[in-house]
Amino acid sequence: MQEPLLGAEGLDYDTFPEKPPPSPGERARVGALQNKRVFLATFAAVLGNFSFGYALVYTSPVIPALEHSLDPDLHLTKSQASWFGSVFTLGAAAGGLSAMVLNDLLGRKLSIMFSAVPSAAGYALMAGAHGLWMLLLGRMLTGFAGGLTAACIPVYVSEIAPPGVRGALGATPQLMAVFGSLSLYALGLLLPWRWLAVAGEAPVLTMILLLSVMPNSPRFLLSRGKDEEALQALAWLRGADADVQWEFEQIQDNIRRQSSRVSWAEARDPHVYRPVAIALLMRLLQQLTGITPILVYLQPIFDSTAVLLPPQDDAAIVGAVRLLSVLIAALTMDLAGRKVLLFVSGYAMGWGPITWLLMSEILPLRARGVASGLCVLVSWLTAFVLTKSFLLVVSAFGLQVPFFFFAAICLANLVFTGCCVPETKGRSLEQIESFFRTGRRSFLR
Question: Per the structure, how many domains does the chain have?
Answer without folding.
Answer: 1
